[in-house]
Amino acid sequence: MKSIKGPKTPAIVQQIQWILDPVQTMETCVQKYGDIFILQGGLDTSATVYISSPQAQKEILTKNNEYEAPSSPILKSLLGEKSIILLEGDRHRRERKLLMPPFHGDRMKNYGELICHLSQQVASNLKVGETFIARKVMQEISMQVILQVVFGLHDSPRLAQIKPLIAEILNFTASPWRATILFFPFLQQDWGSWSPWRRYQRQMKQLDELLYTEINERRGQLDPNRTDILTLMLLAEDEEGQGMTNQEIRDELMTMLVAGHETTATALAWAVYWVHKQPQVYQKLMKELATLETDTEPMKIFRLPYLTAVCQETLRIYPVGMLTFPRVPTKALELQGYHLEAGTIVVGCIYLTHQREDLYPEPKKFKPERFLERQFSAYEYLPFGGGSRRCLGMALANFEMRLVLATLMSNFEMALAENKPVKPQRRGLTLGPAGGVKMLIKGLSTVLK
Questions:
Q1: What confidence tens digit (pLDDT) does each residue in 326-358 have?
Q2: At 318, is the secondary structure helix, strand, or coil?
Q3: Domain limits of the chain?
Q4: Domain 11-444 has CATH 1.10.220.30
Protein backbone atom coordinates (compact mmCIF):
# COMPACT_ATOMS: atom_id res chain seq x y z
CA MET A 1 0.00 0.00 0.00
CA LYS A 2 1.30 3.46 -0.90
CA SER A 3 2.08 6.13 1.67
CA ILE A 4 0.76 9.65 1.18
CA LYS A 5 3.29 12.29 0.13
CA GLY A 6 3.43 16.01 0.85
CA PRO A 7 5.81 18.99 1.17
CA LYS A 8 8.94 18.58 3.29
CA THR A 9 9.07 22.22 4.43
CA PRO A 10 8.66 22.92 8.20
CA ALA A 11 5.09 22.57 9.51
CA ILE A 12 4.85 26.27 10.43
CA VAL A 13 5.79 27.27 6.85
CA GLN A 14 3.13 24.96 5.41
CA GLN A 15 0.56 26.31 7.86
CA ILE A 16 1.28 29.94 6.94
CA GLN A 17 1.22 29.19 3.20
CA TRP A 18 -2.14 27.44 3.62
CA ILE A 19 -3.56 30.42 5.55
CA LEU A 20 -2.23 33.20 3.30
CA ASP A 21 -2.62 31.60 -0.13
CA PRO A 22 -4.76 28.45 -0.03
CA VAL A 23 -5.38 28.32 -3.81
CA GLN A 24 -1.70 28.38 -4.74
CA THR A 25 -0.89 25.89 -1.97
CA MET A 26 -3.53 23.41 -3.18
CA GLU A 27 -2.58 23.78 -6.85
CA THR A 28 1.16 23.33 -6.16
CA CYS A 29 0.49 20.20 -4.09
CA VAL A 30 -1.87 18.55 -6.57
CA GLN A 31 0.64 19.10 -9.40
CA LYS A 32 3.51 17.63 -7.35
CA TYR A 33 1.78 14.84 -5.42
CA GLY A 34 -1.46 14.05 -7.28
CA ASP A 35 -5.03 13.50 -6.09
CA ILE A 36 -4.11 12.75 -2.51
CA PHE A 37 -1.50 14.61 -0.46
CA ILE A 38 -0.69 15.56 3.12
CA LEU A 39 -0.12 19.05 4.52
CA GLN A 40 1.00 20.00 7.99
CA GLY A 41 -1.67 22.21 9.44
CA GLY A 42 -5.25 22.81 8.43
CA LEU A 43 -7.95 23.64 10.94
CA ASP A 44 -5.37 22.96 13.63
CA THR A 45 -1.67 22.13 13.66
CA SER A 46 -2.18 18.43 12.88
CA ALA A 47 -1.24 16.86 9.56
CA THR A 48 -4.25 16.86 7.21
CA VAL A 49 -4.82 14.62 4.18
CA TYR A 50 -6.41 16.39 1.18
CA ILE A 51 -8.27 14.31 -1.41
CA SER A 52 -9.82 15.46 -4.69
CA SER A 53 -10.86 12.53 -6.89
CA PRO A 54 -14.64 11.97 -7.07
CA GLN A 55 -14.18 8.33 -5.98
CA ALA A 56 -12.28 9.35 -2.83
CA GLN A 57 -14.81 12.14 -2.13
CA LYS A 58 -17.61 9.57 -2.29
CA GLU A 59 -15.77 7.25 0.07
CA ILE A 60 -15.19 9.77 2.87
CA LEU A 61 -18.65 11.32 2.49
CA THR A 62 -20.73 8.14 2.48
CA LYS A 63 -18.91 5.60 4.68
CA ASN A 64 -20.29 6.98 7.94
CA ASN A 65 -19.47 3.80 9.87
CA GLU A 66 -15.75 4.15 9.03
CA TYR A 67 -15.32 7.91 9.52
CA GLU A 68 -16.42 10.38 12.16
CA ALA A 69 -16.16 14.16 12.60
CA PRO A 70 -13.26 15.34 14.76
CA SER A 71 -13.82 17.98 17.44
CA SER A 72 -13.37 21.51 16.06
CA PRO A 73 -12.66 24.18 18.70
CA ILE A 74 -12.90 26.95 16.07
CA LEU A 75 -16.38 25.99 14.87
CA LYS A 76 -17.47 25.31 18.45
CA SER A 77 -16.52 28.83 19.56
CA LEU A 78 -18.18 30.39 16.49
CA LEU A 79 -21.36 28.32 16.13
CA GLY A 80 -21.83 26.48 19.45
CA GLU A 81 -21.44 22.79 20.27
CA LYS A 82 -25.06 21.91 19.35
CA SER A 83 -24.68 23.18 15.75
CA ILE A 84 -25.69 20.52 13.23
CA ILE A 85 -22.23 20.89 11.67
CA LEU A 86 -20.63 19.47 14.83
CA LEU A 87 -23.10 16.70 15.68
CA GLU A 88 -22.57 12.99 15.00
CA GLY A 89 -24.71 9.87 14.62
CA ASP A 90 -28.27 9.84 16.01
CA ARG A 91 -28.07 13.42 17.29
CA HIS A 92 -27.05 14.63 13.83
CA ARG A 93 -29.88 12.67 12.15
CA ARG A 94 -32.48 13.95 14.66
CA GLU A 95 -31.43 17.58 14.21
CA ARG A 96 -31.34 17.30 10.44
CA LYS A 97 -34.87 15.86 10.40
CA LEU A 98 -36.15 18.67 12.61
CA LEU A 99 -34.51 21.34 10.44
CA MET A 100 -35.43 20.03 6.99
CA PRO A 101 -39.06 21.21 6.54
CA PRO A 102 -38.44 25.00 6.41
CA PHE A 103 -36.05 24.64 3.47
CA HIS A 104 -38.39 22.89 1.05
CA GLY A 105 -41.63 23.08 -0.90
CA ASP A 106 -44.23 25.78 -0.40
CA ARG A 107 -42.15 27.52 2.24
CA MET A 108 -39.61 28.42 -0.43
CA LYS A 109 -42.29 30.08 -2.56
CA ASN A 110 -43.23 32.33 0.36
CA TYR A 111 -39.60 33.33 0.79
CA GLY A 112 -39.17 34.10 -2.94
CA GLU A 113 -41.33 37.25 -2.96
CA LEU A 114 -39.50 38.51 0.11
CA ILE A 115 -36.04 37.90 -1.43
CA CYS A 116 -36.95 39.83 -4.63
CA HIS A 117 -38.45 42.66 -2.58
CA LEU A 118 -35.41 42.93 -0.28
CA SER A 119 -33.02 42.91 -3.26
CA GLN A 120 -34.88 45.83 -4.84
CA GLN A 121 -35.06 47.67 -1.52
CA VAL A 122 -31.30 47.46 -0.86
CA ALA A 123 -30.40 48.17 -4.50
CA SER A 124 -32.64 51.26 -4.58
CA ASN A 125 -29.90 53.05 -2.62
CA LEU A 126 -27.49 52.67 -5.57
CA LYS A 127 -27.18 55.78 -7.74
CA VAL A 128 -26.35 56.02 -11.45
CA GLY A 129 -22.71 56.98 -11.92
CA GLU A 130 -21.69 55.68 -8.49
CA THR A 131 -19.24 52.86 -7.80
CA PHE A 132 -19.95 50.26 -5.14
CA ILE A 133 -18.34 47.11 -3.72
CA ALA A 134 -20.47 44.18 -4.86
CA ARG A 135 -19.82 42.02 -1.80
CA LYS A 136 -20.98 44.80 0.57
CA VAL A 137 -24.28 45.21 -1.28
CA MET A 138 -24.74 41.43 -1.42
CA GLN A 139 -23.95 41.18 2.32
CA GLU A 140 -26.65 43.73 3.06
CA ILE A 141 -29.18 41.80 0.94
CA SER A 142 -28.27 38.39 2.38
CA MET A 143 -28.28 39.81 5.92
CA GLN A 144 -31.81 41.15 5.38
CA VAL A 145 -32.90 37.80 3.92
CA ILE A 146 -31.49 35.90 6.92
CA LEU A 147 -33.02 38.28 9.47
CA GLN A 148 -36.45 38.28 7.84
CA VAL A 149 -36.70 34.74 6.40
CA VAL A 150 -34.90 32.99 9.27
CA PHE A 151 -35.75 35.20 12.25
CA GLY A 152 -38.92 36.85 11.01
CA LEU A 153 -37.48 40.13 12.33
CA HIS A 154 -38.58 43.12 10.31
CA ASP A 155 -38.16 46.52 11.94
CA SER A 156 -37.72 45.59 15.57
CA PRO A 157 -35.17 47.38 17.80
CA ARG A 158 -33.49 44.00 18.31
CA LEU A 159 -32.89 43.75 14.57
CA ALA A 160 -30.98 47.04 14.70
CA GLN A 161 -28.74 45.59 17.44
CA ILE A 162 -28.17 42.17 15.88
CA LYS A 163 -27.11 43.44 12.44
CA PRO A 164 -23.94 45.39 13.32
CA LEU A 165 -22.85 42.71 15.82
CA ILE A 166 -22.96 39.95 13.19
CA ALA A 167 -21.12 42.17 10.71
CA GLU A 168 -18.34 42.82 13.26
CA ILE A 169 -18.03 39.14 14.22
CA LEU A 170 -17.72 38.11 10.56
CA ASN A 171 -15.27 40.91 9.86
CA PHE A 172 -13.07 39.59 12.65
CA THR A 173 -11.41 37.10 10.22
CA ALA A 174 -12.10 38.93 6.93
CA SER A 175 -8.52 39.04 5.60
CA PRO A 176 -5.85 36.30 5.35
CA TRP A 177 -3.77 37.91 8.13
CA ARG A 178 -6.77 38.30 10.41
CA ALA A 179 -7.72 34.68 9.72
CA THR A 180 -4.49 33.50 11.41
CA ILE A 181 -6.28 33.77 14.76
CA LEU A 182 -8.51 30.83 13.70
CA PHE A 183 -5.56 28.55 13.05
CA PHE A 184 -3.26 29.29 16.00
CA PRO A 185 -4.87 28.55 19.39
CA PHE A 186 -2.19 30.55 21.24
CA LEU A 187 -3.62 33.73 19.61
CA GLN A 188 -7.04 32.93 21.11
CA GLN A 189 -6.12 34.49 24.45
CA ASP A 190 -7.57 37.34 26.43
CA TRP A 191 -4.69 39.83 26.75
CA GLY A 192 -6.79 42.63 28.17
CA SER A 193 -9.25 45.13 26.74
CA TRP A 194 -7.14 45.82 23.62
CA SER A 195 -6.84 42.18 22.53
CA PRO A 196 -8.82 40.98 19.45
CA TRP A 197 -9.92 37.78 21.22
CA ARG A 198 -11.39 39.75 24.18
CA ARG A 199 -13.33 41.94 21.72
CA TYR A 200 -14.58 38.87 19.81
CA GLN A 201 -15.76 37.16 23.01
CA ARG A 202 -17.50 40.31 24.20
CA GLN A 203 -19.36 40.62 20.88
CA MET A 204 -20.35 36.94 20.98
CA LYS A 205 -21.70 37.41 24.51
CA GLN A 206 -23.79 40.41 23.42
CA LEU A 207 -25.14 38.49 20.40
CA ASP A 208 -25.97 35.50 22.62
CA GLU A 209 -28.01 37.67 24.96
CA LEU A 210 -30.00 39.09 22.03
CA LEU A 211 -30.59 35.66 20.49
CA TYR A 212 -31.71 34.02 23.75
CA THR A 213 -34.02 36.95 24.53
CA GLU A 214 -35.62 36.63 21.08
CA ILE A 215 -35.98 32.82 21.42
CA ASN A 216 -37.58 33.12 24.89
CA GLU A 217 -39.97 35.87 23.83
CA ARG A 218 -41.09 33.95 20.75
CA ARG A 219 -41.48 30.73 22.75
CA GLY A 220 -43.68 32.62 25.20
CA GLN A 221 -46.02 33.91 22.46
CA LEU A 222 -45.73 31.18 19.84
CA ASP A 223 -47.75 31.93 16.71
CA PRO A 224 -48.13 28.81 14.49
CA ASN A 225 -49.24 30.99 11.56
CA ARG A 226 -45.82 32.60 11.20
CA THR A 227 -43.65 31.19 8.40
CA ASP A 228 -40.17 32.27 9.50
CA ILE A 229 -37.61 29.55 10.23
CA LEU A 230 -37.24 30.43 13.93
CA THR A 231 -40.96 29.82 14.47
CA LEU A 232 -40.77 26.53 12.57
CA MET A 233 -37.83 25.44 14.76
CA LEU A 234 -39.81 26.30 17.91
CA LEU A 235 -42.74 24.21 16.63
CA ALA A 236 -40.65 21.21 15.44
CA GLU A 237 -40.87 17.94 17.39
CA ASP A 238 -39.15 14.58 16.94
CA GLU A 239 -40.83 11.12 17.07
CA GLU A 240 -40.81 11.23 20.90
CA GLY A 241 -42.61 14.59 20.90
CA GLN A 242 -39.44 16.38 22.02
CA GLY A 243 -38.83 19.88 20.70
CA MET A 244 -35.52 21.68 20.28
CA THR A 245 -33.89 23.24 23.35
CA ASN A 246 -33.01 26.93 23.48
CA GLN A 247 -29.35 26.11 23.07
CA GLU A 248 -29.99 23.91 20.03
CA ILE A 249 -32.03 26.68 18.43
CA ARG A 250 -29.42 29.33 19.30
CA ASP A 251 -26.62 27.24 17.77
CA GLU A 252 -28.60 26.56 14.58
CA LEU A 253 -29.43 30.26 14.26
CA MET A 254 -25.72 31.06 14.56
CA THR A 255 -24.94 28.41 11.92
CA MET A 256 -27.43 30.01 9.52
CA LEU A 257 -26.17 33.52 10.26
CA VAL A 258 -22.53 32.61 9.71
CA ALA A 259 -22.82 29.92 7.05
CA GLY A 260 -25.88 31.32 5.27
CA HIS A 261 -25.18 35.02 5.17
CA GLU A 262 -21.49 35.36 4.40
CA THR A 263 -21.27 32.49 1.88
CA THR A 264 -24.25 33.58 -0.24
CA ALA A 265 -23.00 37.19 -0.34
CA THR A 266 -19.55 36.03 -1.49
CA ALA A 267 -21.01 33.76 -4.20
CA LEU A 268 -23.19 36.63 -5.48
CA ALA A 269 -20.21 38.99 -5.65
CA TRP A 270 -18.39 36.39 -7.77
CA ALA A 271 -21.47 35.94 -10.00
CA VAL A 272 -21.70 39.68 -10.73
CA TYR A 273 -17.97 39.72 -11.53
CA TRP A 274 -18.06 36.80 -13.98
CA VAL A 275 -21.21 37.94 -15.78
CA HIS A 276 -19.73 41.40 -16.40
CA LYS A 277 -16.26 40.06 -17.17
CA GLN A 278 -17.52 38.10 -20.17
CA PRO A 279 -19.75 40.01 -22.66
CA GLN A 280 -21.15 36.83 -24.24
CA VAL A 281 -22.31 35.53 -20.83
CA TYR A 282 -23.87 38.92 -20.04
CA GLN A 283 -25.72 39.07 -23.37
CA LYS A 284 -27.05 35.51 -23.07
CA LEU A 285 -28.26 36.13 -19.53
CA MET A 286 -29.94 39.45 -20.40
CA LYS A 287 -31.66 37.81 -23.37
CA GLU A 288 -33.04 35.11 -21.07
CA LEU A 289 -34.17 37.63 -18.43
CA ALA A 290 -35.98 39.58 -21.16
CA THR A 291 -38.30 36.58 -21.64
CA LEU A 292 -39.81 37.24 -18.18
CA GLU A 293 -42.96 39.26 -17.77
CA THR A 294 -43.00 42.42 -15.66
CA ASP A 295 -44.66 40.80 -12.64
CA THR A 296 -42.85 37.53 -12.82
CA GLU A 297 -43.14 35.08 -9.98
CA PRO A 298 -40.00 33.81 -8.19
CA MET A 299 -40.36 30.13 -9.18
CA LYS A 300 -40.24 31.17 -12.85
CA ILE A 301 -36.96 33.02 -12.29
CA PHE A 302 -35.58 30.08 -10.30
CA ARG A 303 -36.18 27.69 -13.22
CA LEU A 304 -34.44 29.79 -15.92
CA PRO A 305 -31.83 27.39 -17.41
CA TYR A 306 -29.05 29.84 -18.30
CA LEU A 307 -29.38 31.77 -15.02
CA THR A 308 -29.13 28.41 -13.22
CA ALA A 309 -26.01 27.47 -15.21
CA VAL A 310 -24.38 30.86 -14.47
CA CYS A 311 -24.90 30.32 -10.73
CA GLN A 312 -23.66 26.70 -10.92
CA GLU A 313 -20.49 27.73 -12.78
CA THR A 314 -19.91 30.55 -10.26
CA LEU A 315 -19.95 27.98 -7.44
CA ARG A 316 -17.71 25.64 -9.42
CA ILE A 317 -14.85 27.91 -10.44
CA TYR A 318 -14.17 29.33 -6.94
CA PRO A 319 -16.35 27.44 -4.44
CA VAL A 320 -16.89 29.58 -1.34
CA GLY A 321 -16.28 26.55 0.87
CA MET A 322 -12.96 25.14 -0.35
CA LEU A 323 -13.12 21.92 1.68
CA THR A 324 -15.64 19.42 2.99
CA PHE A 325 -15.91 19.14 6.77
CA PRO A 326 -13.02 17.09 8.21
CA ARG A 327 -13.46 13.37 8.80
CA VAL A 328 -11.23 10.94 10.70
CA PRO A 329 -11.13 7.16 10.14
CA THR A 330 -12.16 5.21 13.24
CA LYS A 331 -9.67 2.45 12.35
CA ALA A 332 -6.68 2.02 10.00
CA LEU A 333 -7.98 1.63 6.45
CA GLU A 334 -7.17 1.91 2.76
CA LEU A 335 -8.29 4.92 0.69
CA GLN A 336 -7.68 4.72 -3.07
CA GLY A 337 -4.68 2.43 -2.57
CA TYR A 338 -3.18 4.60 0.21
CA HIS A 339 -2.79 3.68 3.87
CA LEU A 340 -4.65 5.85 6.42
CA GLU A 341 -4.00 5.54 10.15
CA ALA A 342 -6.95 5.78 12.58
CA GLY A 343 -7.40 9.38 13.70
CA THR A 344 -5.83 10.97 10.58
CA ILE A 345 -7.72 14.14 9.58
CA VAL A 346 -9.06 13.82 6.01
CA VAL A 347 -10.75 16.60 4.02
CA GLY A 348 -12.32 16.54 0.59
CA CYS A 349 -10.83 19.34 -1.47
CA ILE A 350 -13.86 20.79 -3.27
CA TYR A 351 -11.76 23.42 -5.04
CA LEU A 352 -9.42 20.84 -6.61
CA THR A 353 -12.28 18.52 -7.61
CA HIS A 354 -13.89 21.47 -9.42
CA GLN A 355 -10.59 22.21 -11.20
CA ARG A 356 -10.11 18.72 -12.65
CA GLU A 357 -9.42 18.85 -16.39
CA ASP A 358 -11.01 15.40 -16.89
CA LEU A 359 -14.33 16.69 -15.48
CA TYR A 360 -14.22 20.33 -16.49
CA PRO A 361 -12.13 20.95 -19.65
CA GLU A 362 -10.40 24.38 -19.44
CA PRO A 363 -11.29 24.59 -15.73
CA LYS A 364 -9.96 28.16 -15.31
CA LYS A 365 -12.48 29.44 -17.87
CA PHE A 366 -15.94 30.57 -16.80
CA LYS A 367 -18.27 28.52 -19.04
CA PRO A 368 -21.89 28.17 -17.82
CA GLU A 369 -22.65 26.03 -20.89
CA ARG A 370 -20.87 23.06 -19.31
CA PHE A 371 -23.86 22.70 -16.94
CA LEU A 372 -26.31 22.74 -19.85
CA GLU A 373 -24.33 20.08 -21.72
CA ARG A 374 -23.98 17.45 -19.01
CA GLN A 375 -24.99 16.38 -15.51
CA PHE A 376 -22.33 16.08 -12.82
CA SER A 377 -22.55 13.57 -9.98
CA ALA A 378 -22.77 14.64 -6.33
CA TYR A 379 -19.04 13.80 -5.96
CA GLU A 380 -17.89 15.66 -9.09
CA TYR A 381 -19.72 18.88 -8.25
CA LEU A 382 -20.10 19.60 -4.55
CA PRO A 383 -20.18 23.33 -3.70
CA PHE A 384 -22.35 22.54 -0.65
CA GLY A 385 -20.34 19.52 0.49
CA GLY A 386 -21.86 16.06 0.26
CA GLY A 387 -23.18 12.95 1.95
CA SER A 388 -25.13 13.24 5.21
CA ARG A 389 -23.32 16.50 5.98
CA ARG A 390 -24.34 18.37 2.83
CA CYS A 391 -25.32 21.95 3.63
CA LEU A 392 -28.89 22.06 4.92
CA GLY A 393 -29.44 25.55 3.49
CA MET A 394 -28.49 24.50 -0.07
CA ALA A 395 -32.01 24.91 -1.48
CA LEU A 396 -32.43 28.36 0.09
CA ALA A 397 -28.94 29.49 -1.03
CA ASN A 398 -29.54 28.38 -4.65
CA PHE A 399 -32.95 30.05 -4.63
CA GLU A 400 -31.64 33.29 -3.14
CA MET A 401 -28.65 33.45 -5.49
CA ARG A 402 -30.74 33.18 -8.65
CA LEU A 403 -33.43 35.61 -7.47
CA VAL A 404 -30.99 38.29 -6.27
CA LEU A 405 -28.84 38.10 -9.42
CA ALA A 406 -31.89 38.24 -11.72
CA THR A 407 -33.43 41.14 -9.77
CA LEU A 408 -30.25 43.25 -9.85
CA MET A 409 -29.49 42.51 -13.50
CA SER A 410 -33.08 43.35 -14.45
CA ASN A 411 -33.05 46.70 -12.66
CA PHE A 412 -29.56 48.07 -13.27
CA GLU A 413 -27.00 48.34 -16.01
CA MET A 414 -23.69 47.69 -14.30
CA ALA A 415 -20.05 47.43 -15.34
CA LEU A 416 -16.80 46.43 -13.67
CA ALA A 417 -15.17 49.58 -12.27
CA GLU A 418 -11.68 48.15 -12.76
CA ASN A 419 -10.37 46.34 -15.80
CA LYS A 420 -8.21 43.81 -13.99
CA PRO A 421 -8.76 40.18 -12.98
CA VAL A 422 -10.14 39.64 -9.48
CA LYS A 423 -8.18 36.98 -7.59
CA PRO A 424 -9.56 34.60 -4.96
CA GLN A 425 -8.45 35.32 -1.40
CA ARG A 426 -9.01 33.68 1.97
CA ARG A 427 -11.83 35.22 3.99
CA GLY A 428 -11.94 33.41 7.34
CA LEU A 429 -12.57 29.75 6.47
CA THR A 430 -13.90 30.60 3.00
CA LEU A 431 -12.67 31.79 -0.40
CA GLY A 432 -13.83 35.21 -1.64
CA PRO A 433 -12.96 37.80 -4.29
CA ALA A 434 -10.06 40.04 -3.21
CA GLY A 435 -11.36 43.58 -2.82
CA GLY A 436 -15.00 42.47 -2.97
CA VAL A 437 -15.49 43.36 -6.72
CA LYS A 438 -15.76 47.06 -7.49
CA MET A 439 -18.73 47.83 -9.76
CA LEU A 440 -20.17 50.92 -11.46
CA ILE A 441 -23.87 51.71 -11.98
CA LYS A 442 -24.22 52.86 -15.61
CA GLY A 443 -27.96 53.25 -15.71
CA LEU A 444 -31.34 51.68 -15.03
CA SER A 445 -32.10 48.57 -17.01
CA THR A 446 -35.12 48.36 -19.29
CA VAL A 447 -35.30 44.56 -19.31
CA LEU A 448 -38.43 44.20 -17.16
CA LYS A 449 -39.96 47.60 -17.79
A1: 888 888 988 888 988 888 899 999 999 999 999
A2: coil
A3: 11-444
A4: no
